[in-house]
Amino acid sequence: MRALKRFSSMLICMVACLALMPALALAKPSNCETCHAKISPEMVKDFNRGKMSKSLTCEACHGTYHTSEKDVAKAQLPTIATCKQCHPDQANQYMDGKHVLGQVALDAMPRSPHQPKAFMAGQKGCGGCHTLGLVDAKGRETEARKYYKYGMDCQNCHTRHAFSKAEANEPEACQTCHMGFDHPQWEMWSGSKHGTAYLTSRAINPGAKNRAPKCQTCHMPNGNHRVMSAWGFLAVRLPEADAEWMGYRATILKGMGVLDPAGKPTGRLDVVKAGKVARLTKEEFDKERGKYVAICQQCHSPNFVKENFKNADQMGKEADKLFSEAISIVGDLYQQGIIKKKADQPFAYPDLLTFYDVDTKIEQTLYEMFMDHRMKTFQGAFHMNPDYTTWYGYAKMKKDLTEIREMAEDMKKKAGKK
């Protein structure tokens, strides 16, 4: 009798579900979806395959003012403030990190205003990654943000309109920006033992893929969106207890325009502080380094971690030794008047932040030594890729220095200088 009652209940439920199916099938999509299914159908598919479609409508991010093709300009475009309504912790972490300051780095480059607008603000060059920054050095909304309304921020990793957490949690999400000439983190990591272990495990046994670290493991522990590192992009810290290394670093800071040729701070030091591209106290550096040490020790012994960090730091010093000599050689050509400074150049000294906008081959070589080979030397060391450190970094720096020495001698002879 009880079995019969249970069967009857199940039958009633099945009939009720079947009765609802026509209604569900006939349910109409929103007006937004009806229109966009014709003009941007994949956008609609993306949204509906994502979790946000279960609880939000298009209006939650885009507002209610845009209702037809006649008032497209009224559509509100989401910003990090929009995301913050549901994800306050992640938004606050992001706003405290370095990605939010991506535009500050571009503003620090003296030749940035001279680049094509499409290249910067139009996001077809440097701006394609750096305009994920929401504010400039003074905390104001960036010009790029005003020019290119769609912005980047959260959407850069949680790509619209699916906004998938799973997608953003894979290392490929970082690849678009962190690859190539001056920051080939993707190539270094994916070719390292860490990267190959992660990628092969994911292919063979997805459940075991986290047996090796990916980008997010070290740079976003426990999902923290702050994303900071001890050395920063330029591998510069102050003060430096190693007097020899501090001498190399002072020369490099002169080349970056943070110090003038006499060694006195310039206005660019304020930009370094605003952009958080360097650690300016021992306490700040040790705090950030400590976070990475703790992560590494989840898999490795304390002695192994200590030794590897020590050796990676020393590769930074070895790179700076070569680089500081190269800067001094080119600086001497400026001091002797063999290389003439540009009208907008603050000092008769090489300005590394002008990048490729220079007039001599020797400065082009110095620029590549700085942004390409020095970066690969120390970044390869920290990403556990000895081949990158060697053949794409340190060996190339040796080659650069040899060429710079020879070019400097030739330029002096032509100018009749000793």
From TrEMBL:
Residue ranges annotated for the Cytochrome c-552/4 domain, each copy included: 21-63
Organism: Trichlorobacter lovleyi (strain ATCC BAA-1151 / DSM 17278 / SZ)
Protein name: Cytochrome c-552/4 domain-containing protein
Record has Lyase as a keyword: no
InterPro entries for this protein: Cyt_c-552/4, Multihaem_cyt_sf, Multiheme_Cytochr_ET
Keywords: Signal
Keyword Nucleotide-binding: no
Residues in the signal sequence: 1-27
